[in-house]
Write a structure and sequence with these properties.
homodimer; alpha/beta; TIM Barrel; 7-stranded parallel β-sheet; 17 helices
Chain lengths: 346, 346
């Protein structure tokens, strides 16, 4: 099977010759060839310059032979196009003028994928040509709840008090904001499919910080809106939430083809709770990839065993950490590529 | 029923006249009377001076009539007695000379509750006399994994890479450290029961950052060691882990009487997975208590409904946040004290 066939078969829960593998944030600071590019340009220039975005997106595919290639970009591209002033710092993104009132929501500009994010669409169509059948091309967007978290907090957060204040004190304004973001993300994701993405991943990373009840009210309906639009455009959808062990069944109601789960739950327990109607992606603890090759092989083997061969995409439970030695990423990818090696190691 | 009877009945899954209620970190910075004391003395002086520790421990019981009173102290008292140099800063605790090697582990001093933490034991026996039957007295200690996290990281952490490096690269050293900490905590917790604590809570806050497999190897056996010792001393045990939705069944194997769970899982789902053999404590999102009284009442009512009347202690899913208005804590406590008020509000 080609990488594209293997990846799409896993998304559809069809048989595969072996489990496909890629890593969230596989193009990133842990790679010397990525750091070499970043020495010349800043993060935003990299996101918005197709020549460079194509180059770094391909780096992990070239080096490790992953079965999927995720376009190099950032979930905040959409809100930046809607008027948010985003700065990328060493400590993470910072947003000026946080969105906290109904008036702030109205200030957000209408989003048009072609005119606002043409650079991403061009990157995708060039990647599709470069990749051929080697690796599936993944487009992505943020989950509306997660984008709302960045907009309200003005950056990352520990307790998400600004976000939750909006949700619990002004639920109507929250829903207006979330609906606006969902419409933008749905249009953006569908345009990525038309530009060549084989699949789309929705990164609703911080939705796992909500109670299940709040997740059901404020995250799920907006994930579903994006999922429906992407599926109508003809591509499978992966939904990722960090800290999803308590909301797996709700997450499945998004209609996603594949749920990307973090490392705090065993994949066999996830399977038992979800049945065979949905695929699973994950879920090795990214911290393990900063330790030893042996620990990486053991963790990857455990994930492959727990998930079984059908409807599983081997991945991490969150993005690759900058401290990760590339040889640990290689060992991780090889665990799927040559599972017989693992068996021999016992 | 008195507060003591109500609390101990809930721990034993016996019938109660109403669900007992208290809050993790209920004596803390959100209370003006606590801040008034802290203007005069630093955190460590407060922990180690029985007059002051008794005063602030009682503040939330006096103000709100909670059914339990947790002794004011810190989980790092034990490791400080073992030789760790702990400083309490506005950003959290800082530990000099992190413990990362077998030699570092051997450097830790033997811990003796009476001579090393007599101030805590005196605080407990005075609190027991002051409280009478009003409220159950709760002693506590850190979970060994969580103490190991502070010792290896030298403070709080986002990804716990130092801790996980020890666990995955040097599991034997990790087990030596964890066993040393478990023995100290078990002796410490049992001495708290002898000094007057009706129950003990083990705060293994960061154990939920591990994979279920690592939790089973590195957290569970050491929780169990403390649980067994405290139960032999005649008191029920509550185990708290933040982010426990994926490991509930493993957590129950600690032998704890009550599992204290965070807000990322519905209590009815926890009940369904655990059966009726173990009590539940929790699990309102502490962020909700920084929003509105109405949102607090709704969230408390939902927790009471989801858990049912038997074997439930109403609490938060993590400690009270400093930004919390005291009237939100009052509304929370009243939700258990006068559930008919909630019913009338619909």
């Amino acid at each position: 099977m080609t990488g594209v066939q293997r990846f799409l078969s896993a998304c559809a829960r069809h048989p595969v010759d072996r489990t496909p593998v890629w890593l969230m944030r596989q193009a990133g600071r842990y790679l010397p060839e990525y750091r070499a590019v970043r020495e010349r340009v800043d993060f935003w220039t990299l996101c918005t310059t197709p020549d460079l975005a194509v180059e770094v997106s391909l780096q992990p595919v070239e080096r490790f032979g992953t079965d999927a290639c995720i376009v190099f970009s950032d979930i905040l591209v959409v809100v930046a196009a809607m008027g948010a002033k985003v700065a990328f710092t060493e400590e993470g993104p910072r947003l000026e003028d946080p969105v906290r009132t109904a008036r702030d929501v109205k200030r957000l500009r209408t989003f048009d994928p072609a005119s606002d994010t043409g650079f991403v669409l061009e990157t995708l169509s060039r990647l599709r040509r470069e990749l051929g059948e080697r690796a599936a091309l993944i487009g992505f967007c943020g989950g509306p709840l997660t984008l709302a978290a960045y907009l309200t907090e003005g950056g990352g957060s520990k307790n998400f008090l600004r976000l939750k204040d909006l949700l619990y004190r002004s639920p109507e304004t929250a829903h207006e904001l979330l609906a606006t973001l969902a419409d933008a993300c749905a249009a953006y994701a569908a345009s990525q499919v038309r530009a060549g993405a084989h699949a789309v991943q929705i990164f609703d990373t911080w939705a796992g910080e909500l109670t299940p009840q709040a997740y059901e009210e404020f995250a799920l309906p907006y994930q579903r809106r994006i999922v429906n639009t992407v599926r109508r455009a003809g591509a499978p959808v992966i939904v990722y939430v960090n800290g999803c062990a308590g909301i797996l069944e709700l997450m499945a109601r998004s209609g996603a083809d594949v749920l990307s789960v973090d490392w705090r739950i065993d994949l066999s327990a996830a399977r038992a709770r979800l049945g065979s109607g949905v695929g699973l992606q994950g879920n090795v603890d990214p911290a393990i990839l900063t330790t030893t090759v042996e620990a990486v092989r053991n963790a990857a083997a455990a994930a492959l065993r727990a998930a079984g061969p059908l409807g599983h995409i081997l991945n991490l439970g969150h993005g690759v950490l900058p401290q990760t030695p590339p040889e640990c990423v290689r060992a991780f990818v090889e665990s799927a590529q040559s599972p017989s090696l693992l068996a021999n190691e016992g």
